Amino acid sequence: MATVQLHKIQHCFCVALLFLLQLSSLQFASLGYNVPDKYFINCGSENSVTESGKVYVGESTLQTSFNSSNTETNESSVPSPLYQTARIFRRESWYKFNIDIKGTYLVRLHFFPFSSSTNLSSPRFNVSVPGFWLMQNSNGRNDTNSNSALVKEFFMNINTSSIKISFRPLESSFAFVNAIELFVLPLHLISNAVARFATIGGTSHYSGGLYSRVLETKHRLNVGGQTTKDILLRNWIPDDTYLTYPENAKNRSAYQGQIEYRVDDDSDGPNAASYTAPSEVYGTAKETRNISSTDGDLGLFNITWALPVDNSTDHFLRLHFCDYVSSQVGLTYFDLSIYDAHVIQVNNDGNVSNELPAPYYYDFVVKSDNSGHIKVSLTPNGNAPIPNAFLNGLEIMKVIESSNSVPPDLVEPGSKHNRLPVLLGSVLGGLALVSVVVLLGLLWRSKMRKEKPVENSDWLPILDNAGGSSHSRLTDITSHSSPLPNINLGLKIPLIDLQLATKNFHASQLIGKGGFGNVYKGVLKNGITVAVKRSQPGSGQGLPEFQTEIMVLSKIRHKHLVSLIGYCDERFEMIVVYEYMEKGTLRDHLYNTKLPSLSWKVRLQICIDSARGIHYLHKGAAGGIIHRDVKSTNILLDENHVAKVADFGLSRSGPPDTQPHVTTGVKGTFGYLDPEYIRSQQLTEKSDVYSFGVVLLEVLCARSVIDPSLPTDQINLADWGLLCKNKGTLQDIIDPSIMDQIDQNSLRKFSETIEKCLQEDGCKRPSMGDVLWDLEYALQLQRGTYDDSSSSVSASLQLPNVRRLPSLSTLSEANNSIVRGD
Fold first, then answer.
1. Which has the closest alpha carbon to 370: 324, 415, 309?
2. Distance between CA 677 and CA 349 in Å, rounded?
3. Phi and psi dihedrals of 501, rounded to 5?
4. What angle do CA 693, 698, 699 make, to 5 degrees?
5. Do 39-189+404-424 and 452-579 show the same overall fold?
6. Does residue 460 contact residue 18 with C-beta atoms inside 8 Å?
7. What would the pLDDT profile of 805-815 be if each residue is shown by its tens digit?
8. Which segment of 390-394, 439-443, 735-739 scores lowest on mean pLDDT?
9. Is the C-alpha dihedral spanning 766, 772, 773, 778 positive or negative?
């Protein structure tokens, strides 16, 4: 009994210590984001000044000595007290900042070449951080307005304990800086995963993500509004000077009500949070100026902005929308184009909010052409109930790639004035934090030794994603937004139990990675082996996807759908726990693998199993569910190669009986996406059928669905497979390891099924029930159950007239399936 009580006391103490640690992180997402006080530096001065409500501290308060010859003071009036002093660098020098919280940071550098004994108008210098050039061959002047300061703004992910900003004068010159800002940003301001848009080829996944780059602000426009500053101290300026045809646009009257952000500050897009853009941006807009022609018709004109950028360089675009004029959702929708190439149809669908006005945004990475501009256009849709187009805000940032030419930072022994290590942070606070961490580690080590010996048991608290509270993300969202129906709270698993199950998410337990984060193998206290999917900050999976996956999995049970074991949403973690699948993903067994090749019969059975799972989603689950991300990595295999469909984060309820489709933003995986869905944003069950057809082709050919290294006509597997099927050369691209195993009649039926699934017109595609029947028939042909004398792969012969009766396996599945009641 005493042992049990001691265990409870240790557990509670550990939780309390973790909570105290969270309080030091400053990331109180649930309480709303506030800009931290550090680091704001008034360079070259011993005094502190206040600007825009923030105190920029003098360098003397940083307990660092500087040579007075490196300081210049103002000899004339300047627009701000922040620009009355500057720090001068005659040789390579740097500021060093200690980083307490890993994440995305904003860096602002202020330059104003005021009149002084040193001619500040003639410097030439570079500025860098490790691995990246921020500025090269700069003179520190604002070339567009000589009376204003030059403010350079950068966004970068920092996952090290410190960061150096280095100033490197060019030969026979010098560098200077007036002020520096560096502070951590809200967790979901910028996501790592983003779509790349190409004028030829549409959208695809941006390889490597944004966190491996640095973003430099080029433009931030308050479209239809005036200059304003947001809570991140970012300047938004009017857009008028960038309109190519001003006569086509007009300012929409400002919204008189309160802009209601319908998500918490810790949520990811497309919903906008209060820090995404201020209400002054979402409450103003440019809209189409409709001009009546001489015959009385209403002319619809597009609105186009052309913004100067660097040539042939990747740029990050964020477009802000808030419909505060329409009386209900769906009345206004219009087309967004970049460089005159269609991107998406803009529509405030249910993914954002069912109420108006609801602010939201779209993100893209676009490579600029050689015109020196990026052109963004909005075109009204004449079929919309309210034909109009509008834009509330626009941001463009240059994507800076890492460079091997950035020299390492060197520290000269005994140097004080040419190297500027800025001592930041409290020594006592650091010691206290270390003491807590050590104590917590000892307690966890003791706990683990009593329960079960494990390897690599140096336990540390989880701080990367933590906020300032241990309360539930789902509780937050249900109290401030729409409720979460059908959540079985009995499935909630404490975070500490998952830490124990996965050895504190140790690398040795890692079994998979994806855009959402990592998947770990774990063993719960009851001995059940599980897969633990833990979302990471800035990943492709945000809170809406987390909620959706829990809701879908908590409502359904089927032998070919992965089972939900539980979930965890403590301290802003997003963790889904589901049954462990021994053999991993279908993709793991098809190509670029050392695993044994799957036989043709096994592959056929896997396809049948998967089709059964998807068919149940479409027809067996209450209301019908569209998966929306069917792909080979979302089909998992158990120890007997029984397949189960997984990952329901993007799933949507099917359309009501009165409607043929669900109108929604395009989500999914490039290469598997239904082209009709991409064009129209109209999602149906047939979109899953298309994606499954790509999977079938992937199974047959054992190659990736997108391979840029191949010739142009072979890059996209779906296009290449259909071309080969039509030419009668499909056998040339079949996986050689199974070529001799396939019965020609079975292959013919299988290839015909693929062709039907990949029809351009969704109405011409079969249902998943029809696909399941065809696949079972292909397996029966393979086994010799049915006789078909055809032996030509490319021959177009009629199949026997077989009655379409449910197979025994289908009937037994229907009887064994479970749907949880509401």
1. 309
2. 15
3. -65, -30
4. 95
5. no
6. no
7. 333 223 223 32
8. 439-443
9. positive
Measured from the Cβ of residue 128, the count of other Cβ atoms closer than 10 Å reads 22
Which secondary-structure segment (H or E) carries 303?
Answer: strand 303-308
The identity of residue 344, as a single letter, is I
Read off the pTM: 0.51
What kind of architecture, by CATH, is found in domain 39-189+404-424?
Answer: Sandwich (2.60)
* Nearest-angstrom CA–CA distance, 155 and 166: 16
Residues 727, 336: Cα–Cα separation, whole Å: 37
Residues 626 and 685: beta-carbon distance below 8 Å: yes
Alpha carbon of 770 to those of 614, 757, 776, 804: distances in Å? Answer: 12, 10, 10, 9
Instruction: Kindly state the percentage of the chain with pLDDT values over 90.
Output: 41
For 790-806, write each residue's pLDDT tens digit: 333 333 323 333 333 33
DSSP state letters, 497-540 = HHHHHTTTT-GGGEEEEETTEEEEEEE-TTS-EEEEEEE-TTSS
**Measured between alpha carbons, how far is 673 from 611 in angstroms, rounded to an integer?**
17
Q: Which residues are catalytic?
A: 629
Q: Which superfamily is assigned to 452-579 in CATH?
A: Phosphorylase Kinase; domain 1 (3.30.200.20)
Question: Which residues, in sequence order, are bridge partners of residue 682?
Answer: 663
Asked if 314 contacts 297 with a C-beta cutoff of 8 angstroms, the reply is no
Predicted pLDDT at 205: 85
**DSSP code of residue 420:** B
Closest by Cα among 320, 411, 316, 441 to 366: 316
Q: What are 196's strand-pairing partners?
A: 204, 365
Residue 481 has pLDDT above 90, yes or no: no
**Six token digits for residue 191:** 């996501």
Q: Which amino acid is at 148?
A: S
Beta bridge partners of 102: none
Banded pLDDT at 435 (limits 50, 70, 90): low
From the CA atom positions of the chain, what is the Rg in Å? 30
Give me the sign of the Cα torsion angle 818, 820, 821, 822: negative
Cβ distance 238 to 227 under 8 Å? yes
> Cβ distance 314 to 367 under 8 Å?
yes
The closest alpha carbon to 553, from 820, 822, 810, belongs to 820
Q: Could you write out the DSSP letters of every residue in 366-407?
A: EE--TTSEEEEEEEE-TTSSS---EE-EEEEEEEEPP-TTSP
Pair 655, 662: CB distance under 8 Å: yes
Q: pLDDT tens for residues 5-37?
A: 444 444 444 444 444 444 333 333 334 568 887
Largest Cα–Cα distance in the chain? 98
- The CATH number for 250-390, chosen from 2.30.30, 2.40.160, 2.40.128, 2.60.120, is 2.60.120
List, for residues 174-225, the tens digit of each pLDDT value: 899 999 999 999 988 999 989 999 887 778 888 889 999 999 999 999 999 9
> What's the rounded Cα separation, in Å, for the pair 176 and 185?
26
Mean pLDDT across the chain: 78
Q: What CATH number was assigned to the domain covering residues 588-819? A: 1.10.510.10
Cite the beta strand spans of 583-694 per DSSP E: 584-585, 625-626, 635-637, 643-645, 652-653, 662-663, 682-683
Question: How many Cβ atoms from other residues are within 10 Å of residue 54's Cβ?
Answer: 15
- Angle at alpha carbon of residue 465, lines to 462 and 468, rounded to 5°: 90
Question: What angle, rounded to 10 degrees, do the helices at 600-619 and 808-816 form?
Answer: 50
Q: Residue 619: which pLDDT band, with cuts at 50, 70 and 90? A: confident
| 282, 273 Cβ separation under 8 angstroms | no
**Domain limits, the chain:** 39-189+404-424, 250-390, 452-579, 588-819
pLDDT of 692 strictly over 90: yes
